[in-house]
Design goal:
Layout: E1 7-11, H1 14-18, E2 26-27, H2 28-31, E3 37-41, E4 48-52, E5 55-59, E6 65-67, E7 74-75, E8 77-81, E9 90-96, H3 97-104, E10 114-130, H4 141-146, E11 149-153, E12 156-165, E13 176-183, E14 189-207, E15 209-213, H5 219-223, H6 228-238
Parallel strand pairs: 1-15
Antiparallel strand pairs: 1-8, 2-7, 3-4, 3-8, 4-5, 5-6, 9-14, 10-11, 10-12, 10-14, 12-13, 13-14
Bound molecules: zinc ion.
């Protein structure tokens, strides 16, 4: 029987974000009832969020890291799960991002399932991004991404948390890896664009269930005419 560690919870979907629907549609405190580990963004793309061991951190457009207030923040899109403490760990050394993904996903026969990924260690060539908080009327994400803020660091120790999604679900989430980073000293992070592993340990958590929660109280969500081509193109260029 499936237990809570088999369940990946998702609020909203990536298509909503690509379309520019950045208004938070779930309280962060409610989201945090669905796991102790996760990633997402907050209202108006205020921060890139990473939940580590139950604590929600946000990285804003200036690259500043803060602990988020669950009662004050809302989220338009996020994934959460409960981290199992019974997972095998993999030692990684001198791998680029593509090699890491290949080793962890294809190497474990996981390409057709949703997977939670956590990598703790020291990384080089880290490029992370965070958008500026957006103002209404919201622009489409492709336009926001073209002026996003990039933060880079070498030889940084920290934690990567995120998810692998199969190609089949591109649009509901970003096919492939969607990873966020937070440094151990809690001063650097964001949505990961590039990294190399210097030395690290990793776990992969396979999910047999995907629980999708839709913002059915959002008129914007209900009445949106989804342009699949725009969404796929945006994911391609921005992620
Ligand atoms: Zn992200």
């Amino acid at each position: 029987m499936a237990d809570k560690y088999d369940n990946l919870y998702q609020h909203g979907n990536l298509a909503i974000i690509m379309d520019g629907q950045y208004t938070g549609t779930m309280k962060l405190s409610e989201l945090l009832n669905h796991g102790d580990t996760g990633i997402g963004t907050t209202n108006a793309l205020g921060v890139e969020m990473i939940v580590v061991d139950g604590l929600p951190y946000g990285i804003n457009g200036k690259g500043e890291v803060e602990i988020l207030d669950g009662d004050a923040e809302t989220v338009p899109y996020a994934n959460m799960h409960y981290s199992s403490s019974n997972l095998p760990t993999f030692d990684l050394e001198n791998l680029n991002a593509a090699q890491t993904a290949d080793f962890l996903i294809a190497g474990n026969e996981l390409k057709n399932t949703f997977v939670g990924v956590r990598i703790d260690g020291t990384f080089n060539n880290v490029v992370a991004r965070a958008a500026d908080k957006q103002e209404t009327p919201f622009k489409k994400f492709a336009e926001v991404a073209s002026s996003q803020n990039l933060f880079t660091k070498d030889e940084v120790t920290g934690t990567i948390i995120g998810y692998y999604s199969p190609e089949l679900y591109n649009g509901a989430s970003a096919a492939g890896m969607h990873l966020h980073f937070l440094s151990d000293d809690r001063t650097f992070g964001g949505h990961l664009l590039e990294y190399d592993v210097k030395v690290a340990t990793a776990t992969v958590q396979r999910f047999s269930e995907l629980q999708m929660h839709f913002p059915v109280n959002s008129k914007e969500f209900l009445n949106n005419d989804i342009e699949m081509k725009m969404i796929r193109d945006s994911i391609e260029s921005a992620e």
